[in-house]
Amino acid sequence: MNQSTTNAIPFQKLCSLLSLGELQGNPQPLSGGFMHRMYGIETGKDKFAVKVLNPLIMQRPTAKDNFIRSERIACKAANSVPAAAAIQHNGESVHEIEEYQMQAFEWVEGILLHPKDISIEHCTVIGSILADIHHTDFSSLNIAYPAAHNEQQQMNWSDYLTQGETNQCVWVEPLRSMIDKLYEWDDQAHRAAVKLAAHMVISHNDLDPKNVLWDGLNPTLIDWECAGYVNPMQDLIETSLYWATDANSLAVQERFLAFIHAYKAKAATLETDWRTVLMSGFAGKLGWLAYSLRRSLGIESVDAAEQKLGTEQALATLQALDLYAQQIEEIEMWLRENN
């Protein structure tokens, strides 16, 4: 986003609404977010982070309600885990100013970890925190239970391929070579979702390294946008793999098991069908691939930079799916041997 566009964002009006103080200097773009724009701002009172919500995402019928719900979850979770929730005004966490929808957060000092920098200690800390989230009583929020997965809405990968060919997208050949597998994984993920829907908890749902700021070994959990119901074992495995994956996108057994053991120390026995749980792991990746393809094609992107990001993420996600499929049997063996 160029400087003229940044200047158009009503940061001072947001500061006035939330009594954050007078804006000082220029807002600074922050890296890390794939879907929305993040900025650091300084005022006469303090420093804050501002999230400018993606207008195309906010056009979705359920988008604003999802943000409101997720912030209610973050506020409740903050009583038991180090969660960063949005600053509210009259009970609202999403603030509509001119044509923008925005959120503001207290500034958190910390760093994001790259895969090569994640240690066994980091995995142990997050594994324990995930167990705390799963044990948090969110019943007072009256969050509606999700609808049953009774009808499969399969992704139309062939349509994406056709559009990619028309637009000469760089991901056409990788997509074509994997298209039969994509349909197969889509079906397996849906079948797994049906089986796992009987037991759900409320969780962060996207607790990967880009959503945790570290000050030494002290973490702060950010970006609760995806918070909601999930099967606890599905959440456990997906999150442990986020933290166990190295710079080559391969799961490291020691880090994976450190995460599992830390969770298990608070959750007692882990009883589930691990193969079903691992099949469910395709769902999030396939959903992100479909979204990235739409961004790359210009269907869900507001500018060329977002379109480029969609292309990069489409290629990366195709590779991640292939690597995940190759590792499933080995990961299942780790789980069976250590449960």
Automatic annotation (TrEMBL):
It holds the Pfam family APH. Keywords: Transferase. Signal peptide: none annotated. InterPro entries: Aminoglycoside_PTrfase, Kinase-like_dom_sf. Residues 28-254 form the Aminoglycoside phosphotransferase domain. Gene3D superfamilies: 3.90.1200.10. One of its GO terms (molecular function) is transferase activity. The keyword Ribonucleoprotein does not apply. Coiled coil: none annotated. This is Phosphotransferase family enzyme. The lineage of its organism: Bacteria, Bacillati, Bacillota, Bacilli, Bacillales.
